[in-house]
Amino acid sequence: MLNVYVIRHGETEWNTQKRMQGRLDSSLTEKGIKDARSLGERLKDTDFVRIISSPSTRAMETAKLVSRKNPKLIETDERLMEIHLGDWQGKVEGDIQIEYPEEFHAFWNQPELYKSLDGENFFDVKKRIADFFMELVKSPPTGNVLVVTHGVVIKALYLLCRNKPIEEIWSPPFIHGTSLTIIKMDNGKMELLLEGCTDHCR
């Protein structure tokens, strides 16, 4: 049996500005740093056989703060990166809504119809996170694994756990910065034990 502890990176400057990040980056806020340290304290007695992070700076910084006991254990996997948003990256949501009204509406209201000419769609994200987890369960087959990733990736992961379609990607819970999700993987089955918990963010 494998227990996978999945966390979203801490709050960033662009998060507070409602600016789309995608594959771009911005620094963690003071709150993001504080919450990551608090999560590290919460998980201090949990032994991880692997720590795998998105290579994005905000995810790596979060991983280091959470796993301060053994930062050398951190490895990266590009399949954990946030959805590639193409020309939307670096723009605030209000401007995107004005420049790309149909695409913006689809993104939030009809995700199965959302298309990006120079980025990814939700199906792309779901496929790569499924590939990641299929590989993860093979090595190691037991123990605790910490995964540091992004909001849309975690939402796609929930779909896999629940066997739900892309249409439901925005169903609750909301994935806050440093929120903790725990998934039990046993005999090919994925069971959500904890969803988007932020009890450490006080």
TrEMBL record:
Keyword annotations: Glycolysis, Isomerase
Gene Ontology annotations for the cellular component aspect, listed alphabetically: cytoplasm
Protein source organism: Cytobacillus depressus
InterPro entries listed in its UniProt record: His_Pase_superF_clade-1, His_PPase_superfam, PG/BPGM_mutase_AS, PGM_Phosphatase
Superkingdom assignment: Bacteria
SMART domains named in the record: PGAM
Residues that bind substrate: 8-15, 58
SUPFAM superfamilies: Phosphoglycerate mutase-like (SSF53254)
A GO term, aspect molecular function: phosphatase activity
Gene3D superfamilies: Phosphoglycerate mutase-like
Protein name: Histidine phosphatase family protein
Catalytic residues of the enzyme: 9, 82
